[in-house]
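Person: Please comment on this record:
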Amino acid sequence: MLMGNSLPNFLVCGTMKGGTTSLYYYLREHPEIYLPTKEEIHFFDLHFGRGIGFYKKYFADVRKGHKAVGEVTPDYMYLEHIPELIHETIPDVKLIFILRNPVDRAYSHYWHAVTKWGVEYLPFERAIEAEPERISRGTAHHRYYSYLDRGKYALQLKRFRKYFDDDQMLVLITEEFKRDPVESLKRVFEFLGVDPNRYNFENLSRRHNIGYSPKIPKLHMTFNRIFGARVGPKELVLGYWYRKMLTLLRRNRKLWELFFTPGYPKLDLGTRDRLMEYFAPYNRELESLLGRKIDAWLRTKQTSQGSLSGSPG
């Protein structure tokens, strides 16, 4: 029996580069969970004006046996106006957040902007210095260049707590999920009210959304500066088609790997330590909000690359 009038009863809201893509593919394999074939719908941030009918089309194939119906769009967590829109539309929805060490998340986000979006042309250290000025330019810049700002998780979760009860929100830690995916998924299944015994846990070693970096970084950065760094509501056609070309190139695995290699260059230890110090007060605030310590983030301080190679997304 088709349930074509469905709206989601759960959302995976973020964070970007925290593991949402892996979670999407894992959850899709449960027979009682429905997720659309399109991973990120972006209804509440990009398409809300198109109306609820547009949104419902993504859930037209929901059947009676689907106890949990959801979608995954990591930008929902970050953008300030989203919690209120979600509450107005589906107030009883359950919300899942997966949070990654904000230093690793920022570095992975940076290489995503370099390689996949083609909008970044500055070295990492200069890019984070330029971030405040860049994100002040408007929505598109805010979306692309918010390397550090997105790592202030407590502020973002507090916005959701204004509208949703604690029992509607599940917060996972990326590093804990990677260490014990079976136990983490069982928590998710319990939260969503689906039967963990109907799930095959044997396929959890498969990696999704592996991070890549250019084989010739200086050349790629030059192309980004000339063609890609044109964003905003009045972006030039040139910038749009450059990003479109990168997307098409990425779909051809063999061609893509002629120009790009899995993993990222090592993050400078001094930069890592400075960013660990920068995020320390925000992490303490998050721990206070969650009522628990996040030891997994502290243990990565002295590693030069940690979980950066083949980063989750």
